[in-house]
Amino acid sequence: MKKLILILLFISLSMNFFASQKIHFSVDDVIGCFENLTKNEGKYSSAFDEPFFAYIKFLHEKYNAKVSLYCFYEKEGFSLAECTERFVDDFKASSGWLKFGFHAERPVKGNTFDGGGTKCS
Predict the structure, then answer these.
(1) How far apart are CA 54 and CA 46, in angstroms?
(2) Which end of the chain is more exposed for a tag (fewer CB within 10 A), N or C?
(3) What is the rounded distance in angstroms from the CA atom of residue 66 to the CA atom of residue 26?
(4) What digits encode the pLDDT tens for the residues 10-46?
């Protein structure tokens, strides 16, 4: 019986410890998911039907993750000005854990991790 009580106590304390832990991560260069939302606005009933947004919602629900997405304004063939407004309420309702920020106007052509591409001055 003592062993069972110790196990239950350990599980209870562990659950409380992990429940109080926090995780935050950010993703740069976000824009494709907005293009996908716009192209599929008739197919999706929620912003979180879109695969990228579905995955970050899963991470939030499983780990209580807070997420920041840093967005490009445009890419070849699409800009945020063209983005559907159908899912605004989904994003407002998720504003406690999902944030958006500006990353850059557009991707830099030829930019690589080895320092190539256009340099900012």
Answers:
(1) 9
(2) C
(3) 9
(4) 665 555 555 567 888 898 889 999 999 999 999 999 9
CA–CA dist 45, 9 (Å, integer): 43
Q: Read out DSSP for the chain?
A: -HHHHHHHHHHHHHHHHHHT---EEEEEEE-HHHHHHHHTTTT-SSGGGSHHHHHHHHHHHHH--EEEEEEESEETTEEGGGS-STTHHHHHHTTTTEEEEEEESSPPTT--TTS-SPPP-
Choice between 22 and 52, residue whose per-residue pLDDT is larger:
52
- What backbone phi and psi angles, to 5 degrees, belong to 57? -65, -40
Please tell me the predicted confidence (pLDDT) of residue 49: 98
